[in-house]
């Protein structure tokens, strides 16, 4: 029997098929509608498909089904192709004596839970090749749900395990009897699918991971997989492919619980992202995640080279954005310990960037004033960094120097730092005056403290009159030594001499305060002992 080939089919420009119009149309509702609208009695027709799912190979599969009287072996390796082709060609209405391909593929999908893991991966990979068509058909969603269900079932930890921190290498056991080998096996149970999912495209991985998040999958495991996927994919591929991977990973990490994301790995992906010119949106998300955990950073983390084409050494603007993200939640949400830790880190960072001759005064000032005053108990490190900056930038005007010195809190400078500042010709003279004034405030505070202690010692306390008078006279004589005029001199040399003298006085006053505190302690102890000693009782008559 001769085969009639009266229909020419162009599939996506890949290949042209000559087929029997009657045979193909008997199974495909789309062609029946098309031929029903055609006019004339032309024997040879041509149909052009520009978006046939699966291309020429899939159309060949469909043709086999039609030429084999509606019979074909439906397996996990071809079900995605056949299902999408059946939907595209509207093969959902059976003709007398024929089979419904769409109905048969949907029946086969009902047995998806019995597929092997490898068969499930093959089907998902086919869906990825057919995108975006299978997403609208619903088969992709079924495959992804089945995949995640299989992963969740196989990844359940044993009762004696607990998830470790995101920066650790495995699962920590709470049962002391478990061996190291058991720990490794438990971690492997949670991550065994990492390697298998590398075959999926970036878009498909994004779809799978977002479904895992919706199903309350462990965020620590998800974040580890994302970093693993990013590292694996960035070894090869073009710049555009790497950029797509990095942006996808960052966007997904952003929707996770940030406490489940490894801080060290965030800096790893940052260094990759800086060389790929990722989108501003993804870059901002990454900076916010890093900045929110700034108290975990180290100096090496922050010493990031400046972008190509700039003349300064380190990327100061990036660190400033980290600090902005850190403070974005508000001081009330940041513990004092975290704030002090970040301040200590920033003091080290400022000391590293201060010698950079290309660092602008505005950037240096922004670094020194980025954190609130409450973050630092001492400004000695900031003073030393400022001294280093002024030493390198010798061309600054007095006005620029004063602006830079605005970051210093003179009341939180040690006496040694104030003396050094008063003798430091790189600093403007006004700074020396402010340092002197701050020391005077300290001196007045100490005088008030010693007066209060002296009054307490003078009060009746069970101490002998002679001892009280002796201590009173001794304290009075010493305090008189420091009760002189506190007005600052105007001459710079006299100013420095006066500051050194005040430092000696402050030191002596501190000694006096310590001595008085010791005396007060003894007085309190004597009072307690006098009240607690019981009276002797008379002996009973025998």
Automatic annotation (TrEMBL):
The BTB domain covers which part of the protein? Answer: 5-69
- Name all NPH3 domain ranges: 191-442
What pathway does this protein act in? Protein modification; protein ubiquitination
InterPro entries referenced in this protein's UniProt entry, alphabetically: BTB/POZ_dom (IPR000210), NPH3/RPT2-like (IPR043454), NPH3_dom (IPR027356)
UniProtKB keywords: Ubl conjugation pathway
Q: Which family does it belong to?
A: Belongs to the NPH3 family.
Name recorded for this polypeptide: Phototropic-responsive NPH3 family protein
- Tell me what organism the protein belongs to: Populus tomentosa
